[in-house]
Automatic annotation (TrEMBL), chain A:
The keyword Nucleotidyltransferase does not apply. Its main location: membrane. GO terms for biological process: anaerobic respiration. It comes from Coraliomargarita sinensis. Residues 512-646 form the Fumarate reductase/succinate dehydrogenase flavoprotein-like C-terminal domain. It is a peripheral membrane protein. Keywords: Cell membrane, Electron transport, FAD, Flavoprotein, Membrane, Oxidoreductase, Transport. Belongs to the FAD-dependent oxidoreductase 2 family. FRD/SDH subfamily. GO terms for cellular component: plasma membrane. It holds the Pfam family Succ_DH_flav_C. Residues 35-448 form the FAD-dependent oxidoreductase 2 FAD-binding domain. This is succinate dehydrogenase.
TrEMBL record, chain B:
Keywords: 2Fe-2S, 3Fe-4S, 4Fe-4S, Iron, Iron-sulfur, Metal-binding, Oxidoreductase, Tricarboxylic acid cycle. Its cofactor is [3Fe-4S] cluster; [4Fe-4S] cluster; [2Fe-2S] cluster. This is Fumarate reductase iron-sulfur subunit. GO terms for molecular function: 2 iron, 2 sulfur cluster binding; 3 iron, 4 sulfur cluster binding; 4 iron, 4 sulfur cluster binding; electron transfer activity; metal ion binding; succinate dehydrogenase (quinone) activity. GO terms for biological process: respiratory electron transport chain; tricarboxylic acid cycle. Its EC number is 1.3.5.1. It comes from Coraliomargarita sinensis. Gene3D superfamilies: 3.10.20.30, Alpha-helical ferredoxin. The keyword Signal does not apply.
Length: 647, 253
């Protein structure tokens, strides 16, 4: 497996511009001879499809929802970062770069992160030009706020609906190209496999989710922007449809999977309420700008609260532990996500948790309301407060919110080089589906930034470069008649037939729940060698059971959500094992990956740069074989490796 | 809680549908309406029956995918709430709940509660955007936008494209949706240049897709989960009248 990251030569600030200059260009008249397949219509896919079509390429774009506007990016609440320094508070491209590398616990590739910071300012311009109604000051200038892990206000937002507005912007651009006939949009189509010809990605196999028809689609290259795999945990903040299928199928066809164990646990979600629950709901991190996080100081007080004998508001000041402010005075409530999540877990492990389950802490707006008035708080977070009340039945203006960490985002993904090309030539990966920019932990408001950076500003160049390198004579040369398409299509059909024929006793959802339970318990906020080894064995057994006992009712030739689920769960089963293997291999603690064996005396994560400053990339070798680990060393030339401190 | 569900079952667009009754027990008050349907579906699968197909994804009230009429009201009885954010504590133990798909000719039923809302996409494709090149915009603060304008645009832009407005309207009019989308773009300085063209194109596509005319009944506003206001319709009507007048004297293109 060739892991040449193709990082351009030269000083970090000039890498991207000099690389762009050296790239092959495709003459505008020739662009219409090429056909690009984009899977996914979220921020990364939607923006890439629109931009590529606008440049003149023919694009086919796929999504499993009924409209591209419903991709999971729509759910992002809090905001998007950009190094604009509009607030004059000392922000710069370099500082955003630095914060991101440090926030990721020094496990991201410097060159990619720098480029992300560099194009971040353009993203805001682009979005505003396309009509995204970002929040404004009275004078008409853009407003900003700060997010976890940053001491500057660089986050742009549109109420609590930033992702929605950014996605609608990309969707509008995409819609324009669909209207012009440059993009052919396939809604309710699920990609089930990748087709390679002479080693290059040249197409995909897709199921029409309405008719069940399996079809072949050929192109000159393939862009995957299929989002993250957080749903491997069953309960997460992700949308129901989020899955790993496209990425995992590509992995089985030769794409290296990087850092699968890096999952982000978000500190401020609504706690679990019972076993009928199907998802967890995030309360935007922006709330930590004004809300103060606390747990009772003593387990006795917590016990009284859980029993309903004491109300949160009646807990006296000296019985409250504002643990983030206490432990991390310079960042306080805005400490990064991994740190805040672990601190909440710690409080609950000590018996100081609240909520009926004991798995919860408070996010309290009492002081902010006293200071700024309820109206100001309503202005800032009104819809989030309503959402909280709608779900829990409690009024957060009167009683503190209850929060607990939940699986939220996946930093791991398909390995890509600087051009966002995977180890399969001609297959590009953007957005949450790739591994590239966040290292072991993602700072708030930077996933949206990365999705749009990839989609609007990176892929349109690097995809063109690849096509240019292939030469115009190669354009459109591979058709779906090629035997490789027939082969992969047969595999896809056989798999569906197999799922339909097992006729066992247990639903796909039930298997998913059991899988999620194993992974959360043993590869969640804390991980140990024994736990992970157990998890791997349990997943293997569960997978066997799945293929013997899953029950998929209905038919394959029409709308069948059970079949869709079964296929996705089957991939999660294999992928879940890979995730645990990766966690087992990484004998250190970093970012979202916390190995109990590797911690400092005061319980902080202990990184091991000597042995683990690399990207762990897994190669698939066969169903019954252990995957092979490859390492891309991470070299820090600009940011000095240092212990991450937020004290 | 224990419930009786009367659910619309329809195999596909070609076959006729009918209501089926299902008893359901042990539903937690903290469950969402869709979680309640998950339990029903697990029960049906256990009995070897096909589960009820329904559209859903984010389950956070933002993607606009969930779509079902609950006891005669699109998205159910709770104001300003999508079906996925509706919680069972708003129902009574022992209650009978009727669940059916959006009813509107331009949204044909595909299966059970799933309908085809692609006409909404085509309304946007015809003009619901700002024409601009990606990657070459001027600095965002070069054009100050008064807070009130930005707030108004955001009020309009909050529409999640769910289609409840169409389902609630006796005429199956898509005015509230189209008006929200057009008002968002038309009210911003960036969107002014193509305001007339946009408005004419979106309204004419809306008509071509078979949506009925708006007769100001207001059912749409009452069911809209994002509280899009009828003012948006007034705004669209104003923009449309202006565009038509201009079009009369000089073709808007
Ligand atoms: C609740 C929540 C709040 C968040 N808030 C923030 C925030 O405030 N700031 C921030 O920066 N980030 C936030 N994030 C993270 C951020 O939203 C995501 O990381 C980002 O939007 C992912 O974008 P994407 O384009 O990579 O993927 P997605 O938006 O997930 O898009 C994936 C696309 O791929 C398609 N797809 C997937 N599989 C297939 C397949 N097999 N076949 C066909 N199509 C397929 C889907 O249909 C979809 O169109 C939040 C995430 C969540 C869950
Ligand atoms: S206007 Fe309201 S009801 Fe209609 S589509 Fe938009 S959000 Fe849904
Ligand atoms: S499922 Fe997304 S709005 Fe209901």
């Amino acid at each position: 497996m060739n892991l040449d990251a193709k990082i351009p030569e030269g000083p970090i600030a000039e890498k991207w511009s000099s690389h762009k200059f050296k790239m092959k260009l495709v003459n505008p008249a020739n662009r219409r001879k090429y056909h690009v397949i984009v899977v996914g219509s979220g921020l990364a896919g939607g923006a890439a499809a629109a931009s590529l079509a606008e440049q003149g390429y023919n694009v086919s774009c796929f999504c499993y929802q009924d409209s591209p506007r419903r991709a999971h990016s729509i759910a992002a609440q809090g905001g998007i970062n950009a190094a604009k320094n509009y607030q004059n508070d000392g922000d710069s491209v370099y500082r955003l770069f630095y914060d991101t590398v440090k926030g990721g616990d020094y496990r991201a590739r410097e060159a990619n992160v720098y480029r992300l910071a560099e194009v971040s300012a353009d993203i805001i311009d682009q979005c505003v030009a396309s009509g995204v109604p970002f929040a404004r000051e009275y004078g008409g200038q853009l407003a900003n706020r700060s997010f976890g892990g940053a001491q500057v206000s660089r986050t742009f937002y549109a109420r609590g609906q930033t992702g929605q507005q950014l996605l609608l912007g990309a969707y509008a651009s995409l819609s324009r190209q669909i209207g012009l006939g440059k993009v052919k949009m396939y809604n309710r189509h699920e990609m089930l496999d990748v087709v390679k010809v002479d080693g290059h990605a040249k197409g995909i196999i897709v199921r029409n989710m309405v008719t069940g028809e399996i079809s072949r689609h050929a192109g000159d290259c393939v862009v995957l922007a299929t989002g993250g795999y957080g749903n491997v945990f069953f309960l997460s903040t992700n949308a129901q449809g989020c899955n790993v299928t496209a990425a995992y199928r590509a992995h089985k066809r030769g794409a290296g999977f990087a850092n699968p164990c890096y999952t982000q646990i978000h500190p401020t979600c609504i706690p679990v309420h019972g076993d009928q629950q199907s998802k967890l709901t995030l309360m935007s991190e922006s709330l930590r700008n004004d809300g103060r996080v606390w747990a009772p100081k003593s387990p006795e007080t917590a016990k009284k609260i859980r029993a309903g004998e004491l109300a949160a508001n009646d807990v006296p000041e000296d019985e409250r532990d504002y643990y983030l402010e206490r432990k991390y005075p310079s960042f306080g409530n805005l400490a990064p996500r991994d740190i805040s999540s672990r601190a909440a877990k710690e409080a609950c492990d000590e018996g100081r948790g609240i909520a009926s389950t004991g798995l919860g802490v408070y996010l309290d707006f009492r002081d902010a309301i006293k200071r700024d008035g309820q109206k100001a708080i309503e202005e800032r977070y009104g819809n989030l407060f309503e959402m909280y009340q709608c779900i829990t039945g409690d009024n957060p203006y009167e009683v503190p919110m209850m929060i607990f960490p939940a699986v939220h985002y996946t930093m791991g993904g398909l390995w890509v080089d600087y051009n966002l090309q995977s180890t399969i030539p001609g297959m590009f990966v953007g957005g949450e589906a790739n591994f590239s920019d966040h290292g072991a932990n993602r700072l708030g408001a930077s996933a949206l930034m990365q999705g749009l950076a990839d989609g609007y500003f990176v892929l349109p160049y690097t995809v063109g470069n690849y096509l240019g390198e292939q030469g115009v004579a190669a354009a459109g040369q591979v058709s779906t008649d090629h035997p490789a398409f027939a082969e992969v299509e047969a595999d896809v059909k056989a798999r569906i037939d197999k799922l339909m024929s097992i006729n066992g006793n247990e639903s796909p959802r039930s298997f998913h729940k059991r899988l999620g339970h194993i992974i959360w318990e043993k590869c969640g906020m804390a991980r140990s060698k024994e736990g992970l080894e157990e998890a791997i064995r349990e997943i293997q057994a569960l997978r066997k059971e799945f293929w013997e006992n899953v029950r998929v009712v209905g038919d394959a030739d029409g709308i069948n959500p059970e079949l869709e689920k079964a296929g996705r769960v089957a991939d999660f089963m294999e992928f879940g094992e890979l995730l645990c293997r990766d966690a087992l291999m990484r004998e250190e603690s970093c970012g979202g990956h916390f190995r109990v064996e590797h911690q400092t005396d005061d319980g902080e994560a202990m990184r091991n740069d000597e042995d683990f400053a690399f990207v762990g990339v897994w190669e698939y070798l066969g169903d019954d074989q252990e995957p092979k680990l490859h390492r891309e060393p991470l070299i820090y030339e600009n940011v000095k490796l240092a212990t991450r401190s937020y004290k | 809680m224990n419930l009786t569900l009367k659910v619309w079952r329809q195999k596909n667009g070609e076959t006729k549908g009918k209501f089926e009754e299902y008893p359901l027990s042990d539903v937690s008050e903290d469950s969402s309406f869709l979680e309640m349907l998950d339990i029903l579906n697990e029960q049906l699968v256990e009995q070897g029956q096909e589960p009820v197909a329904f559209d859903h994804d984010c389950r956070e009230g933002i993607c606009g995918m969930c779509s079902m009429t609950i006891n005669g009201i699109p998205h159910g009885p709770q104001r300003a709430t999508t079906a996925c954010q509706l919680h069972m504590r708003h129902f009574r133990d022992g209650q009978t709940i009727t669940i059916e798909p959006w009813r509107a000719k331009p949204f044909p039923v595909m299966k059970d509660l799933v309908v085809d809302r692609s006409p909404f996409d085509r309304i946007i494709q015809s003009g619901g955007f700002i024409t601009g090149r990606t990657g070459s915009a001027v600095d965002a603060n070069d054009m100050p936008i008064p807070k009130s304008t930005a707030d108004y645009a955001m009020d309009a832009a909050a529409c999640i494209g769910c289609g409840a407005c169409v389902a609630a309207c006796p005429n199956a009019s898509a005015m509230l949706f189209t008006a929200a989308k057009a008002s968002h773009m038309n009210s911003l300085p960036q969107g002014k240049a193509e305001k007339d063209r946009r408005t004419l194109a979106m309204v004419s596509t809306m008509d071509d897709e078979g949506f009925g005319g708006c007769t100001n009944i207001g059912e749409c506003e009452a069911v809209c989960p994002k509280q899009i206001s009828l003012d948006m319709i007034a705004h669209l009507n104003r923009d449309y009248a202006q565009a038509q007048v201009k079009n009369f004297f000089q073709t808007v293109s």
